[in-house]
Amino acid sequence: MVATFRSLDGTLLSAQVVLPAGAAKGTVVALHGCGGLFAAQGTRKGGLNARHQGMADFLVAEGYAVVFPDSLTPRGEKELCTQKIGQRAVGQVQRRADALAAVAWAAAQPWTPSQRVALLGWSHGGSAVLGSTDARRADVTAQAVRPAVAVAFYPGCSAALQAGYRPSTRLVLMLGEKDDWTAPGPCVELGRATNAEVNLYAGSYHDFDNPVGKVRLRHDVPNGVNPGQGVHVGANPQARAQSYGRLLQLLAEAFQR
């Protein structure tokens, strides 16, 4: 189903909501990356892209509700990946406002037991996970509900590391060892500085948890470790299985508290 609610910055957001057949064990708020929530081409065009649909199917089968807020379409954007970081109209200020609002909205729904909400994000959305769980920020600490656990797949960690990020909840990072888009090094360092759990998957690039496709070089991405030279993205089935398995363990631990 599709739901609507206001971001903390006043933007009217839409969200794709997927519910399990029975009572939910908890709700996962899942934040898309720079490519947006939806598939831009192929048979999935207009629907959740393969990575998001794969996660939705996986979590719903395990008894969790999933909420996918769309940060781009309501602001007139389709994707950010091909835009230089400094030129993007939608940045982490907007993503943080959206994530905080989505967590509050999800916690208030009748299908979310005891306000059990976890936060998950990929890439640009993984960076939003960091921004919306930063205990140094007044808008974060002002929230009545905080995620029971926050899981970020291959986020950009440099800004958080330099700013002195402090997690407001349990933080877990899922990283690709060979990621040349959002390099794992700053995230590993951030994990050490904050006592966050770091999972570094060998032989894996950005988007390693995608259920479809193979590793390819994207020449249309101007950012990354080597600006102008493109970035590698693509699936690593073994890393996907390992990260999904760990995610299930984390959710079970977080929602039992």
Reconstruct the topology from this structure.
Layout: E1 2-6, E2 12-18, E3 27-31, H1 50-61, E4 65-70, H2 92-107, E5 117-122, H3 124-131, H4 138-141, E6 150-153, H5 158-163, E7 171-176, H6 184-194, E8 197-201, E9 216-218, E10 231-233, H7 237-255
Parallel strand pairs: 3-4, 3-5, 5-6, 6-7, 7-8
Antiparallel strand pairs: 1-2, 2-4, 9-10
Please identify the structural class as seen in this structure: alpha/beta
* Helix segment tally: 7
Give me the side-by-side strand order of the main sheet: 1-2-4-3-5-6-7-8
The CATH class is: Alpha Beta
Query: Judging by the overall fold, what is the CATH architecture?
Result: 3-Layer(aba) Sandwich
Quick check: average pLDDT?
A: 96
Q: Can you give the helix content as a percent range?
A: 25-40%
Domain count, please report it.
1
Here the CATH topology equals Rossmann fold
Percent of residues in beta strands? 15-25%
Would you give an account of this structure?
This protein has helices at 50-61, 92-107, 124-131, 138-141, 158-163, 184-194, 237-255, and strands at 2-6, 12-18, 27-31, 65-70, 117-122, 150-153, 171-176, 197-201, 216-218, 231-233. By secondary structure, it is of the alpha/beta class. It has a single domain (2-255), classed as Rossmann fold (3-Layer(aba) Sandwich). Strands 1-2-4-3-5-6-7-8 form an eight-stranded mixed sheet, with helices on both faces. Helix 2 packs across helix 3. It starts with a strand and ends with a helix. The mean pLDDT is 96.
